[in-house]
């Protein structure tokens, strides 16, 4: 069974261009609940604070990239690829998850 990590990069403060959207942390929680229902333990969702990143060198470097490139957060990353920016769409995230080989439960 394939397992993947979905990274959600963001900050406590809402992106200036995203004032009507939920915070990155709220989005991470919502995404985790939705993906766990659909894929179970095959998917792990990790929130990364772009101002205080913790994790691998790759995770820290990507958090810096979000800031340097003024990406709209939350930024959802799966297997090194940006899947969503600003207001993530569950359908697009699920399509990417299934393209990398994770199967839905049931």
Automatic annotation (TrEMBL):
SUPFAM superfamilies: Thioredoxin-like (SSF52833). Transmembrane segments: none annotated. Pfam families: DUF1462. This is Disulfide oxidoreductase YuzD. It comes from Laceyella tengchongensis.
């Amino acid at each position: 069974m394939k397992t993947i990590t979905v990274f959600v990069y963001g900050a406590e403060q809402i992106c200036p261009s995203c004032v009507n959207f939920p915070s990155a942390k709220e989005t991470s929680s919502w995404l985790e609940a939705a993906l766990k229902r659909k894929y179970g333990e095959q998917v792990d969702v990790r929130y990364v604070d772009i101002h205080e990143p913790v994790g691998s060198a790759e995770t820290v470097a990507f958090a810096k990239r979000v800031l340097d490139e003024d990406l709209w957060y939350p930024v959802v990353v799966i297997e090194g690829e940006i899947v969503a920016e600003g207001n993530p769409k569950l359908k697009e995230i699920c399509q990417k998850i299934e393209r990398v080989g994770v199967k839905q439960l049931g």
